[in-house]
Amino acid sequence: MMKISNILLEGLTLYLVDILIKTDKDANKVEIYNQIRAIEDVVVVTVEQNDFLQSKSTDQFDYEMLHLKFLAGGEPKEAIDEIKKKAMISGKIPGLRQFIVRYQTIQSKGKY
C-alpha cells in the first residue's frame, strides 16, 4: 500500500532532449507536432529550423529536429522511451515514420 508521505516525496524532474523525426512529405506537420504535444508527460515541443535537415529531405520524406521538454519521475531515458512508444506504436501518429531520440542531449531543467 502506498503511503501519502511517499507520494508527497516523489518529485518530478523536467528534462530537455532533442528528437529527430522523419515524416511523410505530404503529412500535416502541425498536426504531428500537436499530437506529440498531447502525449502524457510531454510539456513543450519546439521545432528547430534546420537548413541541413531540409536539404536531406526527399520527395517522399521530410526531417525535422524537435526540442522536447518532458517530465520524468524516474530515469529520463525510460520516460523518453515511453513517449517514443506512445508516438510510434500505441498512439501511432499518422505521417510520423521515425522518432529518433538523441539521448546524449538529455538535460535536466529542474525539479518539481
Chart the SSEs and their pairings.
Elements (H helix, E strand, L loop, with lengths): L3 H6 L3 E12 L4 H9 L4 E7 L2 H6 L4 E12 L3 H15 L5 E16 L1
Antiparallel strand pairs: 1-3, 1-4, 2-3
Q: What number of domains?
A: 1
What does the overall shape look like?
A: globular
Task: Note the run of SSEs as H and E.
Answer: HEHEHEHE
Distance separating the two termini: 24 Å
Which CATH C-level class is it? Alpha Beta
Radius of gyration: 16 Å
Second-tier CATH architecture? 2-Layer Sandwich
Give the biggest sheet.
4 strands, antiparallel
CATH superfamily: ACT domain
Overall average pLDDT: 89
What is the oligomer described by this structure? single chain
Q: What share of the residues lie within helices?
A: 25-40%
Helical stretch tally: 4
Strand order of the largest sheet: 2-3-1-4
Class derived from helix and strand content: alpha+beta
State the CATH topology.
Alpha-Beta Plaits
How many DSSP E strands?
A: 4
